[in-house]
Amino acid sequence: MRLPSFKFPAVLAATIAAATAASAQPIDGKALLDLLVRKGVVTPQEAASLRSELAAPAPAAVAVAAAPAAPGAAAPVEADRKSPLFFRIGVANFTPVGFMDFTTVYRGTNVGSGIGTNFAGIPFSNTAAGRLSETKFSAQNSRIGLRVDSAVSDTKVLGYLESDFLGNAPTNLGVSSNAATLRMRLYFADLKIHDWEFLAGQDWTMLTPNRKGIGVMPSDIFFTSNMDTNYQAGLTWSRQPQVRAIYHATPEVTAGLSLENPDQYVGGTNGSAAVTFPAGFNAAQVDTGAATSAPNAFPDVIGKLAYDTKVGDLAWHFDAAALFRTFKVNNFATGAAPIDADTTKTGVGGSINGIVEVAKGLNLIGNAYWSKGGGRYIFGQAPDFAVLPADASGAYKLSTLRADSYLAGVEWQAAPSSLLFGYYSHVNIGRSYNQLANGSYVGYGYPGSPNSNNHTIEEFTLGETQTLWKSADYGALQVISQFSYVDRAPWFVAAGTPSKAHTGMFFVNLRYVLP
Predict the structure, then answer these.
(1) Considering all CA atoms of the chain, what is the largest pairwise distance in Å, rounded to the nearest integer?
(2) DSSP H or E stretch at residue 257
(3) Under a CB-based contact definition with an 8 Å cutoff, are residues 58 and 17 in contact?
(4) Residue 79 has pLDDT above 80, yes or no
(5) How far apart are CA 71 and CA 81, in angstroms?
(6) Region for 435 from its dihedrals, namely left if φ exceeds 0, alpha if ψ lies in -120 to 50, beta otherwise
(7) At 268, is the pLDDT very low, low, confident or very high (cuts 50, 70, 90)?
(8) Residue 62 pLDDT exceeds 50
(9) Kind and range of the H or E element at 51?
(10) If we measure between CA atoms, which residue out of 63, 53, 68 comes closest to residue 20?
(11) What is the pTM of this model?
(12) What pLDDT is attached to residue 290?
């Protein structure tokens, strides 16, 4: 049965016209109508009417889609994590990030370092500090930041800013106002184009172990789940200016190279002791923890290779990194016997790290780091090198110190609202020294050296992050608890004095996390 002619010709004409306009190949409408007449689909009169309609000029089409963007024009890109707080300016998405912390810490001795622990400076029990406990309340670890996502052509652009209130504090901070100082933690721009990624700015050093690939975001980095703002003794980390290139060879394999801010560090901060210098050495050439203007010959060079895979539905991550550094000092003197002698020394290091999910939510963690001249990357617990007396030419000798560490841990998501964690870490620091003609010593770890010239530092930690409630719209409320035991052993202790310094620490933290 043929469709009613009062509807069918108009529909057929529109169909033929649309097909002719959309087709890449020209369609012969007259031949098609002749075929339809022969088959009895339409009458000759209907065909004639259709030929007249097809011959008429088509009305202008109404635009229903925007014209394609010009080459190189930016297009908005959504952030990896949608937040109800995000807003858009132009073609960029802005997402506030952060959390509000209220931290309580109790220590069995007076470490004197705020809510972050100076592991290398645990006091001995034969001192007043070793006989006093300490309790602190603080909101300094509260975090504020901003993430910006956009794109330029096929390049994804990410900007990230993160700060807290643990900056250099006035000496009267705790008297009245407790006006903690805002400081920059991270501030960088990251570009991704096809398989390549480029970063410039301040980020975690590429020597820090990763949780995933060679990711640049805090969630991609392993710095433990500890509440201690100095994390865990033995963890290799730094946050510093850098420029890096990353190549995503496959979904599983990533390689990276980073040039990072150097620092000729000889101890003297985070509880550690500076090396003892030869007489006449200009200590302004090195960083003793008291200045930021020490000269440096060349950026630290760090290379890294990461492998991520799944065994069944269990995630496995491995990465290995290599470190190359350069140190340089000068001995200059005028007069009857002028001296202008340079000394250059290289430092090297390497690490192997892994996170293996052995059951759903249960991860085993291992980090191992070896170095000669890489002590500052273990939270500055060890000097990079010692300066030894000058030779006949007047050139000082630089002796790089061994600095090794390892960390073993477990993290278990025991329930959706409960993360349990535990870590053990160990730091081993070498020594290098010379005895002078008068019987005294220069260097680090020599006989009779101060008990701040550490040989080993150990820490054992247990903790839990308990989520009290969580909402995609309103954020999350968490309680983080941590117990740690730290001890350190110096290279030399006087007869009749304790061989080790130790302390127990307990942290409780209430945290509200932005959605």
Answers:
(1) 124
(2) strand 253-260
(3) yes
(4) no
(5) 28
(6) beta
(7) very high
(8) no
(9) helix 44-55
(10) 53
(11) 0.83
(12) 81
